């Protein structure tokens, strides 16, 4: 396990209905990241196709696949070829009628290091994920790799400090969020900016509160609503890496297809936690209320 390593993010459009088009873009991005020295590469949420959760459509279940399965085999072969750890995001078919939104971690030797099933499942206009995904049942457990313990979470999970904290308490060395989030085109510029600022701020706060780097990779591009009842989603990109004090190490904009590579120094988390010892000062004897839905 090395003290420093480089992480790559592949910010890409995923709107083609042809899975192979999106997969080729992901592969090209991963190869580019590896050529820039990346040891770990993160892809956006559900990067194989359009964000189908804008509507409830039973035919979309046909997109799901097993894990291991065809895509994990492709990612595994690429991980071995490039000598990198890959974090991908798939629509998992676990059993008939049982599906998950699942992130997979492929080790640099091509083996499946582990997976994480998305725990927090939204159900909001344009994001009807409860129709498709069963809540995860693997817990908030980091995946052990040659680069350290990866605290992999998925999109909606990024709004919950409990998820980040539990990953940190389980020994995660960094937090990774494959993401698919964007604007309603009907919202004005001020509202769109508030939403984007909130998204960046909440994740930077996870970095600060836990003394860990945060890597967040989002998709870009406009994807129409298949039902025609809305103007679709304008995915806002802005993939970024924050250090353990919340400092922005790199960030893309809302439009560009971009591969970013940045160095992570594991020692930074140790040093930051020594001067800001939040884990030491937690009052675990007084936090019982956190397991309640609401304190009436």
TrEMBL record:
Enzyme Commission number, as recorded: 3.5.1.53
Pfam families given in the database record: CN_hydrolase (PF00795)
Domain CN hydrolase: start-end pairs: 5-266
Keywords per UniProt: Hydrolase
GO terms assigned for molecular function: N-carbamoylputrescine amidase activity
InterPro entries: Aliph_Amidase/BUP, C-N_Hydrolase, C-N_Hydrolase_sf
SUPFAM superfamilies hit by this protein: Carbon-nitrogen hydrolase (SSF56317)
Gene3D superfamilies: Carbon-nitrogen hydrolase
Annotated protein name in UniProt: N-carbamoylputrescine amidase
Organism for this UniProt entry: Methylocaldum szegediense
